[in-house]
Request: fold
Amino acid sequence: MKDNVVLEMRNIHKYFPGVRALQNVDFTLCEGEIHALMGENGAGKSTLIKVLTGVYEKDEGQIFLKGKDKAVAIHSPQDAQKLGISTVYQEITLCPKLSVAENMYIGRLNGIGVNWRKLNKDADAILESLDIPAKATQQLGSCSLAVQQMVAIARAVDMDCKVLILDEPTSSLDEQEVAKLFKLMRDLKSRGVGIIFVTHFLDQVYEVCDKITVLRDGQLVGEYEIKDLPRVKLVAKMLGKELDDTTEIKDTSLVYDKEDAGKHVLEVEGLASVSGIKPFDFYINKGEVNGFTGLLGSGRSECVRAIFGADKVVSGTVKKDGKVIKINKPIDAMKNGIAYLPEDRKRDGIIGDLSVRENIILALQVLKGFFKPLSKAEANKFAEEYIKLLEIKTASADTPIKSLSGGNQQKAILARWLLTHPEYLILDEPTRGIDIGTKIDIQKLVLKLASEGMSITFISSETDEMLRTCSRLVVMRDRKVVGEVSGDDMNQSKIMSTIAGGESK
Amino acid sequence: MTTADTKKKNKPNVSELFGKIFKRQIFIPIAAVLVLLLFNLIVDPGFFSIELTRNSAGNPVLSGNLITILNNGSELAILVLGMTLVTAASGGQDISVGATIAIAGSIILRIVCGTDAKADSASFGIVLVAFLVACVASMAFGAFNGALVSIFKIQPMVATLILFTAGRSIAAWINNNQLPTVSDPSFGYIGGFIPGIPIPTPFIITVICIVLMALLLKFTNLGLYSQAVGINESSSKLNGINPIFIKFLTFVILGLCTAVCGLIKVSRVSGITYSVIAQDIEMDAILAVALGGNALGGGKFNMAASIIGAYIIQILTTTLYAYKIESTALSAYKAIVVIVLVIVSAPAVRNKTKAFFAKLKAKAAAERKEVA
Reply:
């Protein structure tokens, strides 16, 4: 082992029933290095991380750490922590109801005779040294997601971690928050911490990382210096094939051009819900893709949730094909041909323990009614059809959906709604936290569906993606619709200026 | 291909097959039944003898330990049908079922006996009416529990604690604290034998209930919905399911199950003792659901496994009685077997075993590759 290497994983193998999740994977991390771990969904990134953190036991291979002459045995997350390996997950795994300091020291105190005043002071000192805008005594849940994540990192730093794993830390942060996180990461880097950064955002990799290790189908593709691997090549390595430039997908799209193309499918007037959004007007044409844009928390999701009846509506009217309809709860919307793919896949989308098949047929089943269950054969047929159509990678239709990778779970939920043949499909962050290949698949699918006459609302935190897919964007700020851009106006700077205050009050 | 090759190819299949069987939820309950029966076979093959005899009224009846198991396990098996649904949808259990059985039984006797607390004749008609009234009442009590759980979001165990505490008093109050008895022998047919049919009536009723439940699960989406609600309520809601209604419905169905149990219970003894009837049956019902390998935290369920779980408890009880274990010591023996079963089916143990088979399989696959 070289002097500056803090972690070396060699010949790691991991089997799952029917799958070889990792085959002969090597990974090396140096001191003071930010190392991106890249790969498509199912490439084995999470498995590798879980082997390293003791969540899974490896079947073969060795792990070496700096300062230990022999290979270390990691059987549990506790072992990993003791060895100085800390992880901050995409989903915050701290306790929101406890205070910041309590969260930082939880599990590390003997429980009796704790001097909280001192601990709070210590915590404040650490938070300050890392420039984290939180108070030790504050309830963690009252901090923004980004700050919560930083607290998790502070906890890891205080535990004297040598290896810090950040698993998709940025997927629910907005740009400023990401910038803050990166500053913190660079700070830690200068202190000699080795950071493993797992993300789907290519930009961020190039902004902050030093090295990239690429995995594909459970095997190591290679380790690269960031300067030696331009973006196009990285994508090619991840996919195992040369990719046509991702910005060109709009060329492949067709435009819906039947005579009813300009017809309003859905019109909304003065709609407001208990979530606190200001009453808004909205319409969507047949075969149109539109989007809601705005900063995180600006009320994008709340708007579509109100349309779908997911939040209780307090005022306003909804017209479909010119006729007023009443939507009090999701089933009303579904009966009117509206489908909604929610933002939080884990909380609102998947039914984890149920099979892929049951997850796919669920919405159609509910629409058909309580007394008309689909026969097993029908359910199977639908499931198989959509697994094939959307190329969902699953061992079988019987597999519990929770064991699928994020992107494939998302495809299954998409299949669920496509199966109901909606006229108006709402996609709220359909590409969050999923790999670039699937992302492009979904974008292409959206354009294709629209060209066949489906009206689609596409919401994404990545403006690029929206510009590529949508033909009209509703801009939001502070829970209020503040403008709309379309046609030639649709570009980053125009959107930014509208968000920033194109229309005041 | 040589025979040696074929052998090598077939070898991993055995472990694969075994691994597959083991993974099934229903494996452990069935295995437990087989082990218990095997134990009896070894210790005393006479355990399995079934005889056709005549009872005191001169009617042909089957008797033997197996018949006792099927007969006495009836109430638990019926109850477990509803309890499994409640567990799946609400992620909790109803501990008031014993008390509700007492209420249902009390109502039936009240209608059959009137104010005299005694009935010399019980026509089919009046028993039927009594049973239907009991059904309505039990479903109303189920609805009460269901409303507390689904609308007011009270934890099931806490919500049902109310009826658990008050139920037997309500039962006694229905009959003015008298202990009504029915002397018409035909009333005892329901909990005993119908003349001419040697199979115990409670077992026949159980089979009917199981069939009805199977039809309900087949021809409605109750199974899918209650699982979906139990696993992810928020997601179910966004898919157009009404979680409140589904939870409510499962409690009402359980209420109906308790009414059937109440009928069997009072018929068995042609009377009622409020503090003893269906005592501790709620715990056995919960245990049966657990023994069936169902998560008590809700979500996926396997109805067949639950039913087998109920009979495991009954086989255990009957076995212990057959070996003249004192009834006071019975619970201790039962507990030992339950501990073993629960540990064997615990996720930690199952995962270890699963991983073991997976490893075997992977190794076999690697070997196969080498051979090729």
User: Anything to note?
Assistant: Chain A touches chain B at residues 15-18, 20, 59, 308, 310, 329-331, 334, 340, 342, 347-354, 358, 362-363, 365-367, 370-371, 373, 416 (CB under 8 Å).
